[in-house]
Amino acid sequence: xxxxxxxxxxxxxxxxxxxxxxxxxxxxxxxxxxxxxxxxxxxxxxxxxxxxxxxxxxxxxxxxxxxxxxxxxxxxxxxxxxxxxxxxxxxxxxxxxxxxxxxxxxxxxxxxxxxxxxxxxxxxxxxxxxxxxxxxxxxxxxxxxxxxxxxxxxxxxxxxxxxxxxxxxxxxxxxxxxxxxxxxxxxxxxxxxxxxxxxxxxxxxxxxxxxxxxxxxxxxxxxxxxxxxxxxxxxxxxxxxxxxxxxxxxxxxxxxxxxxxxxxxxxxxxxxxxxxxxxxxxxxxxxxxxxxxxxxxxxxxxxxxxxxxxxxxxxxxxxxxxxxxxxxxxxxxxxxxxxxxxxxxxxxxxxxxxxxxxxxxxxxxxxxxxxxxxxxxxxxxxxxxxxxxxxxxxxxxxxxxxxxxxxxxxxxxxxxxxxxxxxxxxxxxxxxxxxxxxxxxxxxxxxxxxxxxxxxxxxxxxxxxxxxxxxxxxxxxxxxxxxxxxxxxxxxxxxxxxxxxxxxxxxxxxxxxx
Length: 514
What we know:
Elements: E1 2-9, E2 14-19, H1 28-39, E3 48-51, E4 54-61, E5 66-73, H2 81-95, H3 97-101, H4 105-110, H5 116-133, H6 211-227, H7 232-246, H8 257-273, H9 281-290, E6 295-300, H10 307-320, E7 325-330, H11 337-351, E8 363-366, H12 374-387, E9 392-397, H13 405-418, E10 422-428, H14 433-448, E11 460-464, H15 474-483, E12 487-491, E13 499-500, H16 504-512
Parallel strand pairs: 6-9, 6-10, 7-8, 7-9, 10-11, 11-12
Antiparallel strand pairs: 1-2, 1-5, 3-4, 4-5, 12-13
């Protein structure tokens, strides 16, 4: 009932693979999707991943730097898979220990791993064991542990034990046998680790890291991230991901658990803030210009986060780079919204007078007043920009709470009808858990209210009020982690110049500072 099982090295060399009877499709696509979406993006909070009609389970052996991946149809409930993948890992490494201890890709390529008979034996035992257990009947409420809970039992006392979830280890990348499709580098930084981790500098020379070794460090790390404004759920997922990456890894002499874990977390955080999709607005505007059409950016977000102000900052940045801008006033609800944009238009044109640009204002405002259909105004503005040869259209929308269904429907309609090139979510750097809720619900609402099978979701983030948070920069991690989309700009003040690109390493440095 398994579609495939593959074992490969961190370097991407497939050591052995199995494909189920009647399965003709290659497993390379699903495994590479797992690598791109979960492993390279440091999102391995658990050991499961879905790809089209397949469910994938994966496990990482850090001692021998191996990856084990099993795939089966989603509609199947295979209760034995978690134990089965553990059994295969132990059996494979025990049988081929001598070969695996030889370092280097060439040694692996020259080794022969005849694992077919062992695999079929383990699979047969797992399936028979599963059948022998049979289906379990559902317990009544009175028989369950939940019926024993009281309010007092759910209050965590100081110094009380915290339950820890022991997950499977993390997986890496896959390919066709003998060919390297990717390369992973795991090199935890070494050295002393001060501040909050100062008390955890016990030396653990030349030993394999276990969950118990890392647990005290991860507890303090989780609390530290939450104190720096990372959403609590995401802080836990990050620490779980680091634990799975390091479990079983052999440490060098005079290397501390704390420094190893800190190095792995720093690498993970930098990777999260540098997601796979990079937004290059200037390049994209030039490409749209070559096609004789305007580049359209839509701004959305909750009330009071600074959408109009940061729209004006981005207008100034575009003007400084030689582009003409049309601002579409599609906030037809908030009193004063149109007047605010008109004020920005006048100020921007005073900085770049029309006489310096052939008598034509370099920034114009397209508005139809209040109470009108925002999607219709945006459509008219885009058509006007095309006729008048504007380079960029910036669409300002009304602020709305993520739970306001009518306004979220209107936003989804505006995006679906006008198909902007870029949808930017504007959020505050001051929020933590709330940022996650806003982004998840905005994306969900755009998907639910879209008229397309492939709805447009948020493409990037503008983080405002970044100058007010000192080193509590956790919202940047929360927002990027939850969407997988980049932070395009951060607002750092009240003037038009106060707009910056995000420096991932500087943010991580501030986040990890004790």
